């Protein structure tokens, strides 16, 4: 018994472990990967690789895609100029849609699609499709590896036939050079050029203050102490096409404060019997100011909490607004109605580059 035990102890530990492959066919050699490397399938030439006429056909197809892209970009710009923004057309099955939006989307989509389709067709039919297996290397490349990468790059550039297929190269460059013009044209939709449009409103000397709710001209007695009223210029029709554009600049806020409580002398001089008229457009991002505190004479913008003191020239007390609300000088005409004595002394709403 002792001799058998000693013999068993001399067996290496790994020999004592059960073999998982026993009874399952041929055993695997120790230290070898049990999964064989399948390798790469043999390369098969495409018709373009052996027939130059087929390669030329593919070249012309790719060039056609890029040329259509260039024409679509030109069509995008032409559509932007040709179609008015309010033109509506019927397109089945979409129904009634804007002719401008439809044409812009169609032409820009076609331009981008043709660039992608041309690139894909080029890669599938003309560029080299030989698969190469390469061992992984450390992150820090050795000089030999860097040299190999550059050589591979040069080889890839050569196999892409960019230098040889000049028609493909030139039309691709043309398509890629023209398509960014679509974005340049879209910059025009950021709004009208400032010039004088942002500096002036519809208010002018003699324009009556019309109540936004009743559509009637306002008298001083219509503005009660501690209340807030809103007005628009006489002649601005709420149903007109340019109403939203004009009221966004001309919207007026009226408040009545005891003359003795008005701190700013100019505000007092521009008021009538304590009735003050200020722009309703917040000087931060243009939200309508409308929350009034009667006891403090403060008005609050609900968007970002900019607070203005109406008793002190509508100066900014709190929040991100950059300057006070512009005041409109008012008086009363011979019929007893409130009227403007001119336009706002400064541009209304948020700051802009040319504000000065």
From TrEMBL:
Keyword Cell membrane part of the UniProt annotation: yes
TM spans (from-to): 62-82, 102-123, 167-187
Domain Rieske: 249-339
UniProt record similarity statement: Belongs to the Rieske iron-sulfur protein family.
Organism: Streptomyces oceani
Biased composition (Basic and acidic residues): 1-33
GO molecular function, one term: monooxygenase activity
Topology relative to the membrane: Multi-pass membrane protein
Keywords: 2Fe-2S, Cell membrane, Disulfide bond, Electron transport, Iron, Iron-sulfur, Membrane, Metal-binding, Oxidoreductase, Respiratory chain, Transmembrane, Transmembrane helix, Transport
GO cellular component, one term: plasma membrane
InterPro entries the record matches: QcrA_N (IPR045603), Rieske_2Fe-2S (IPR017941), Rieske_2Fe-2S_sf (IPR036922), Rieske_Fe-S_prot (IPR014349)
Record region (Disordered): 1-45
Function: Iron-sulfur subunit of the cytochrome bc1 complex, an essential component of the respiratory electron transport chain required for ATP synthesis. The bc1 complex catalyzes the oxidation of menaquinol and the reduction of cytochrome c in the respiratory chain. The bc1 complex operates through a Q-cycle mechanism that couples electron transfer to generation of the proton gradient that drives ATP synthesis.
Lineage: Bacteria, Bacillati, Actinomycetota, Actinomycetes, Kitasatosporales
Subunit structure: The cytochrome bc1 complex is composed of a cytochrome b (QcrB), the Rieske iron-sulfur protein (QcrA) and a diheme cytochrome c (QcrC) subunit.
Stored Pfam families: QcrA_N (PF19297), Rieske (PF00355)
Subcellular location: Cell membrane
Protein name stated in the entry: Cytochrome bc1 complex Rieske iron-sulfur subunit
Record carries keyword Electron transport: yes
SUPFAM superfamilies noted in UniProt: ISP domain (SSF50022)
Signal sequence range: none
